[in-house]
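Hi all, long-time lurker, first post. I run a small reading group and we've been trying to get comfortable going from sequence to structure in the token notation. Rather than ask abstract questions, I figured I'd post a concrete chain and ask someone more experienced to write out its structure so we can walk through it together at our next meeting. Sequence below, copied exactly:
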Amino acid sequence: MDHDRKPIRSGMGRSTPDRIFVQGFDLVEDVIGTLNLGDMAYLEMTGRLPDSRQSRVFNAILVTLVEHGMTPMAIVSRLVYLGAPESLQAAVAAGLCGMGTTFAGTAEGAARMLHEAWEAPGDQDADTLARRIVADFRARGQSIPGLGHNLHKPQDPRTARLFSIAEQEGHAGRYVELMLAIGAHAQAGLSKPLPINATGAIGALCCELGISWKAARGIAVIGRAVGLVGHLAEEQGNPIAREIWQRTEAEASRQDDPTAGNGRREAP
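-- Answer (accepted) --
Happy to help. Here is the structure in token form:
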């Protein structure tokens, strides 16, 4: 059956025998040697070049989640590389699959929460919105995205720095205000600290820069991919994955060793 077909169009890039175009810019003449990686990522995600203020904020966001030590994502990347050293990209991909609501992936949830709050009908201020958001999440028994950290307490130092840079560059507007208000109301009455974490700050700054909440997790992916490549470069010169594997196997199997003092008892 004949039907109207949507034209297939994309402005991302195209090539001719002697030229390459990216978002309408000549790659050789306008991009290579001119744009840094962060500005290139901003161009790809938004279709426009950042000004100097946007560039500083966006690059600060990108580098925030590059490295955070021997996290599960880094460990799994190293272990996959141990098993398949011919496929570095698979090891990086395996690590990125671990990005979610526990590690590095909550920028999306924070950005969505802030975006939807301000887009909702009604003329409300940040304090009123924050009270409602905190009450709604608690009524559902859910954690508020962008709040809390197992190590960085009473505050996440990355958040303070990101918000400071945003303030300096004129990009600490209503989304940052709302995130701060949510943090304050969520913390009220608790006996333990509940800081705004880095992904909460990143979610707010994505909104400030006009980046869709649906793409916010992608920024964390870009940064963490760089970090995982770094871990694999270190693994090549200072391998530790085999040690992690062998020690884990040995310790996990001790219950099967009668000489370890905790062996399985034989059935009567």
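A couple of things your group might point at:
The first helix runs from residue 27 to 31.
The two ends are 73 Å apart (CA to CA).
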